[in-house]
Amino acid sequence: GAVVSQHPSRVICKSGTSVKIECRSLDFQATTMFWYRQFPKQSLMLMATSNEGSKATYEQGVEKDKFLINHASLTLSTLTVTSAHPEDSSFYICSARDQGMNTEAFFGQGTRLTVV
Amino acid sequence: GDSVTQMEGPVTLSEEAFLTINCTYTATGYPSLFWYVQYPGEGLQLLLKATKADDKGSNKGFEATYRKETTSFHLEKGSVQVSDSAVYFCALSDLNQAGTALIFGKGTTLSVSS
């Protein structure tokens, strides 16, 4: 099946710094990618929908200035957590769908962010 | 809006026991239905899917049938193994809308002991 690669898998950063997470579709082109956040023992919360070449669409309650999303090409989307604070510590997962219709979403391995 | 409700966990079973994880959905259109599995510290893997009513998805001994009349997509396995211990998510999406994200249930943790 299609592969979505997410990097890094784990990152620890100091409070106030910024962290960039990359999401790549390795063998297909993804017009749309999705970023989710998962709290411990909870479901995935959709943060934003990332569209290649245009601005991301953020879900209600998600701060667009804190969670910067860039989808510069059909195979790469990045999520930057700016001025991170301990409450931003979480598991972030990206997802991508092939350009064609009737395809399921493929998920990255996730990134465990810990802000100290 | 569309939503997914799945049974609360954790579900604790002995090896070779029968598994059922209930999932029901609410949708305005005709969504596709999915079960994803998440092992500790990892992302989500597609377990099975069904794209229309009465379809049965199956994989690795797991199966689920898309029941439009009861708006359900219950996951079953006849004989679970310790290696099946994971979190299982039911989800829906309109596959005809390429820009549509999946909507997930809250997840059900399965723990299988030998």
Could you walk me through the main structural features you see in this protein, from its secondary elements to its overall organization?
- The complex is a heterodimer of chains A (116) and B (114).
- In chain A, a hairpin with a 5-residue loop joins strand 5 (44-51) and strand 6.
- In chain A, strands 2, 4, 5, 6, 9, 10 and 11 form a 7-stranded mixed beta sheet that branches. Chain A has a 4-stranded antiparallel beta sheet with strand order 1-3-8-7, with no helix packed on it.
- Chain A has strands at 4-7, 10-13, 19-25, 32-38, 44-51, 57-58, 67-73, 76-81, 90-97, 105-107, 111-115.
- The N and C termini of chain A lie far apart (37 Å).
- Chain A contains no helices and 11 strands.
- Chain A is mainly beta and 116 residues long.
- The radius of gyration of chain A is 13 Å and the shape is globular.
- In chain B, the strands form 3 sheets. In chain B, strands 2, 5, 6, 10, 11 and 12 form a 6-stranded mixed beta sheet that branches. A 4-stranded antiparallel beta sheet of chain B has the order 3-9-8-7, with no helix packed on it. A two-stranded antiparallel sheet of chain B has the order 1-4.
- Chain B has 114 residues and is mostly beta strands.
- Chain B has no helices and 12 strands.
- Chain B has strands spanning 3-6, 11-14, 19-21, 23-26, 32-38, 44-50, 56-59, 62-65, 75-77, 86-93, 103-104, 108-113.
- The interface between A and B is medium-sized, with 28 and 25 residues.
